[in-house]
Specification:
Site (Transition state stabilizer) (chains A, B): 104
Order of helices and strands of chain A: HHEEEEEEHEEHEHEH
Strand order of the largest sheet of chain A: 1-4-5-7-8-10
EC number (chains A, B): 3.1.21.10
Oligomer: homodimer
Main location (chains A, B): cytoplasm
Structural class of chain A: alpha+beta
Number of domains of chain A: 1
CATH topology of chain A: Trna Endonuclease, Chain: A, domain 1
Cofactor (chains A, B): Mg(2+)
Distance between the termini of chain A: 63 Å
CATH architecture of chain A: 3-Layer(aba) Sandwich
InterPro entries (chains A, B): Resolv_RecU, Restrct_endonuc-II-like, tRNA_endonuc-like_dom_sf
Number of helices of chain A: 6
């Protein structure tokens, strides 16, 4: 039986399956166009809905200067400025533990530049580690689509040396001290597998 | 010896001590004018600088629609809208544990209205508790300046009943199931003392 829309137009199932396909493609081949941030957000959504972990990206901090309250509609922010974040982007809870991390990508092939971090972010990670939090960075080399979890203490070592030494972390050091994360279908970036390995070394 | 400013104007120490006094009054008598949010932010700052805990308020989530990038000055957000937060306001790490809470004040004298919470915030707290997080609400009765830590599970009970039952948590129930927080000088709201008592009951 032909199915029709209320207006009388015929319903073509193929229209819908085509749409559906493009949506699911977006999810499965996420690594072909999504930024690392989008991939991690999607993975966090997966972890949340499956009761595995609760991790959220913090909103971008803005200083709101002027807000308009039009009648009968939503408040409009008319003037605001970006503030420097005082923490990392992601935190949450996994197996009762506090986890805290920053996700960064680089086009570099052989090293990860330290200029991707701010002093206060490193300070924040130090404070979290001191409280027994699980802190790390997720680093993606976009040229090769390789992703690693790098424990915060490795970042601290290079951060401390940078005044006198090199201004980046060699990829070789990341491979040796970090944990590789393989792309997957669901979640796209299964970084908690790497967190498990990392947690096993510090308990 | 008279001390002068570069312009030649005399320096009067009394001007400065007067200013100093007003600043320290703001801190000590915080509960006489500060909102609960300001009091908790100040307490978190104390906990952070003394290496006791790392807890931050999350930035207000906004949907940015239009940004202006003027030459030689900071980017200006020209149009943005407030988004409904999908989590609670505060989270962080204390003694290796993930803590997560919402801070709310009420002018009511005998009960705390449940309309102070959104469904997704309660859902978020449920998810955090399921992961072993320490979740609670800090409730302030502004009329009497009384503050309590209320474990999330008590909120869950009343939240579930509200479709058929009362739409608020009686103050008596908060006194019985919660932990009173006494105002202090530093930190203003020493809520981690109450967290210690709460944590002792769930471990």
């Amino acid at each position: 039986m032909a199915i029709r829309y209320p207006g009388g137009r015929l319903f073509h199932e193929s229209d819908h399956s085509a749409k559906k396909k493009s949506v699911s493609s977006q999810v499965i081949y996420g690594n072909r166009g999504m930024s690392l941030e989008q991939e991690i957000n999607a993975s966090n959504q997966y972890y949340l809905t499956h009761g595995i972990a609760v991790v959220h990206k913090k909103p971008i901090p803005v200083q709101i200067v002027d807000v308009n309250y039009p009648k009968r509609s939503a408040a409009v922010i008319k003037e605001a400025y970006f503030k420097t974040p005082s923490t990392t982007d992601y935190n949450g809870v996994y197996k009762g533990k506090y986890i805290d991390f920053e996700a960064k990508e680089t086009k570099n092939k052989t090293s990860f530049p330290l200029k991707n971090f701010h002093e206060h972010q490193v300070q924040h990670m130090r404070a979290c580690v001191a409280q027994g939090g699980i802190c790390f960075t997720i680093i993606k080399f976009t040229q090769t689509q390789e992703i690693f979890l790098l424990p915060a203490r490795v970042l601290f070592d290079y951060w401390q040396q940078q005044a006198t030494g090199r201004k980046s972390i060699p990829k070789q050091a990341i491979i040796q001290a970090g944990y590789a994360i393989q792309y997957h279908i669901n979640p796209t970036v299964p970084y908690l597998d790497a967190v498990d390995k990392f947690m096993a070394t510090i308990q």
